[in-house]
Write a structure and sequence with these properties.
With 707 residues, the protein is an alpha+beta fold. Its cofactor is Mg(2+); Mn(2+).
């Protein structure tokens, strides 16, 4: 939590604030901010999320500027940690906070102000992520880690040396036997947070609100019966008197910040250097802003939290000339990003039934703005997930959103409970049809399965990325169901002209057009037909892999669990579920076969090695000659040129026809990124990893023979 102004819905907006109408409102706001900061820097259980706290402090600052005679001595403005915490271990050099900006204009004004103070341009800037954790100082004597100290009030902090040995990235011994102080951020990665929540739930039935508060509480905890792992990223180094190495001290006082970070990494301390948001040096305002945008775009895919970007004058002489304020250095600023996490109320839970009969809960929230959009609903996976998180109606909950991910509830904020919260009622019968519920697995299902939501199941099967039956609207499917002409999507292939003509608003032309579309759907490749079945645990991508692996439905049906696991990405549990699903779907599959629906994948080679054609060539080895052979390809953004009319699924099918593997995420294994308009974070990540990037037009030329 920063003791600074508010985060914003957009990187270009001016920060908003809590408006304080009078002195009483101001006094109440000061007390609320101090209490929130004390809780946050104590055990991480603040009643306010970062955005609300920043908005409140911004309002306090505004009131104090217009009413200087009413400023309260315990106001959080101008103080490290809002003045809410103290420590008993003095810092060798004050451990200050950072001032904030929220937009390119704000950053430009700050840069101009710094350069006016220096009387010269700043030639080199450091741009690095602002990690969302707790600042600590790690003291090493002759290369051995001897003490950990929190930031506290900036002048002195709390000794938390009991945490030594539990923090990844902070070695017990450095690569060199030096005496030095490393400063950095302690936090929990997403994986560490999940593990910590499991341990806490097993211990007392509660969970942590979010990774930041979990890290704060864990760092200070000394008497827990369980140990939670933390992560450290270094962001600076200082000489450590007394007895420090004078040569090292001179280097640390004179080297640019970027070179000091290289030293820190060489000593064995983790920095962000190996991450997609590694710090860089920049020479111009344009380069600074470009890196800010790159880091912001990568934020959603990071395994750890960031809440901004830190911009620093890189050279030691610039830092020395600029100096320090009472709570922050004048040579560094934090460019804050929009909040991805807020606290709001859980006011209800609705239970919906999906097309396969899966019963899924969805949280209804008091509307809250997160990352520029108003969030009213959030994901709740299943009843077991609700129980694990200990959620209750009326709870204050932490809601998280990153990038385009559907908002989810992280955890209840247990310390804000009033006693009025009520248990969440789980359904005893199917919410859709009133029949029984199969609770044998964590994801509950109506005992009628797909029959419970026949309309949804058929609509899905006929969709563009499955059988792609043109003109078959949802209303038409409903008519066919009500007339008794169909009970599942296989029945569509047995429809005759006389039946369809009896439907309301179906003339001869529209009937012929619909029947022609159904006839075309009969020839779709196996990957489309398999996807239309809606097998749980599979989707478009997995359906393509299955179809290309087995080549024919006959081989799929004959496969045992071991054979199915040979499909990339198919684990043992998924394989077992797929066999169960296919047994349930066998009557539907037999009906499709009887209707003459295609059950093979063009160009695929059967897993057993039987001969098959690849784009018309009777030689499996010909697959190696395809333009994308063995290459992992990611398509992102809006396609243009020859690919403009293709859906994302059709682009992925094209990738696989050309011998590649269609993937949804960029990684070090990605061989090619097809970047359309507004490619976003995937393009940024590809650039960071050195992945080859092509336009849709260039890609179309590469695979022209397979379009």
């Amino acid at each position: 939590m920063s003791a600074a102004p508010d985060k914003m819905p957009s990187m270009n907006d001016a920060p908003s604030l809590t408006v304080l109408a009078d002195q009483a409102a101001y006094a109440a706001a000061v007390q609320m901010a101090v209490d929130a900061a004390a809780a946050y820097y104590g055990d991480g259980t603040s009643p306010l999320d970062d955005d609300a706290y920043d908005r409140l402090v911004r309002g306090i600052e505004a009131y104090e500027q217009t009413h200087p005679g009413q400023v309260l001595p315990h106001s959080p403005t101008g103080k490290v940690a809002g003045g809410a915490v103290e420590g008993d271990v003095p810092h060798t050099v004050p451990m200050l906070s950072l001032d904030n900006v929220f937009s390119p204009d704000g950053l430009a004004r700050w840069v101009a102000g710094l350069e006016r103070r220096l009387g010269r341009p700043v030639e080199v800037w450091s741009v690095e992520p602002k990690l969302d954790g707790l600042a600590i100082s790690a003291r090493y004597h002759h290369g051995r880690l001897t003490q950990l100290i929190t930031r506290g009030d900036g002048s002195a902090g709390e000794d938390v040396s009991h945490a030594i040995g539990t923090i990844v990235g902070l070695p017990g011994r450095l690569a060199e036997p030096i005496t030095v102080e490393i400063r950095g951020e302690v936090m929990m990665t997403a994986e560490q947070f999940e593990a910590a929540c499991e341990k806490r739930t097993a211990h007392d039935g509660t969970t942590f609100a979010n990774p930041r508060s979990a890290a704060a509480g864990t760092l200070r905890a000394q008497d827990r019966p369980y140990v939670c792992e933390l992560t450290f990223f270094g962001y600076g180094a200082l000489p450590l008197p007394p007895g420090g190495d004078s040569e090292l001290a001179t280097r640390l006082r004179t080297l640019p910040h970027s070179q000091i970070m290289d030293l820190v990494a060489a000593w064995g301390v983790q920095t962000t250097a190996a991450t997609p948001v590694a710090g860089i040096v920049a020479a111009t305002a344009e380069e600074i802003q470009a890196r800010i945008e790159q880091i912001a775009a990568a934020r959603a895919d990071l395994p750890f939290g960031i809440d901004g970007i830190v911009v620093k004058a890189d050279l030691a002489e610039d830092q020395a000339a600029a100096g320090f304020g009472s709570r922050a250095p004048r040579w560094a600023i934090a460019y804050k990003l929009p909040a991805t996490e807020k606290i709001t109320k859980l006011i209800g839970v609705e239970w919906n039934v999906g097309r396969t009969g899966i019963i899924a809960p969805r949280a209804i929230l008091e509307p809250v703005e997160i990352d520029g959009s108003t969030v009213t609903y959030a994901t709740l996976h299943n009843a077991a997930d609700i129980a694990r998180r200990g959620l209750m109606l009326g709870d204050s909950v932490t809601v998280y959103k990153a990038g385009d991910i559907i908002p989810r509830i992280e955890a209840p904020v247990v310390h804000l409970r009033t006693g009025d919260e009520q248990p969440i009622t789980v359904p005893q019968v199917c919410p859709n049809c009133g029949d029984g519920i199969d609770t044998s697995q964590e994801r509950w299902r109506c005992v009628r399965g797909r029959e419970c939501r026949a309309l949804a199941s058929i609509v899905y099967a006929a969709g563009r990325d499955q059988l792609d039956i043109e003109t078959l609207a949802t209303s038409r499917i409903q008519q066919l169901l009500e007339a008794g002409f169909i009970t599942d999507f296989a029945d569509l292939f047995f429809l005759n002209r006389e039946q369809v003509l009896t439907l309301e608003r179906m003339g001869e032309a529209s009937t012929d057009k619909l029947l022609a579309a159904i006839e075309t759907a009969r020839t779709r490749p196996l990957s489309r037909v398999f996807c239309a079945l809606g097998v749980r645990g599979t989707g478009r991508s997995m359906s393509r892999r299955i179809a290309r692996h087995f080549a024919a439905m006959e081989a799929v049906l004959a496969a045992d669990a071991e054979a199915i696991q040979a499909v990339e990405g198919m684990g043992s549990e998924k394989a077992k579920l797929m066999i169960e699903e296919l047994a349930e779907l066998r009557p539907l599959i037999d009906k499709l076969i009887a209707a003459g629906v295609n059950m093979t994948e063009p160009g695929a080679t059967p897993a057993a090695g039987a001969a098959a054609t690849v784009d018309g060539v009777d030689d499996a080895a010909a697959a190696a000659e395809l333009p994308l052979a063995g290459m992992s390809v990611v398509a992102t953004g809006a396609m243009t040129g020859p690919l403009a009319a293709l859906s994302r699924n059709q682009v992925n099918e094209l990738i696989e026809r050309a011998g590649g593997k269609a993937s949804s995420g960029v990684s070090a294994k990605t061989g090619l990124l097809v970047a359309g308009e507004k490619a976003g974070s995937k393009r940024t990540k590809a650039e960071d990893l050195g992945v080859k990037i092509v336009t849709p037009e260039e890609f179309a030329e590469m695979v022209a023979a397979h379009l």
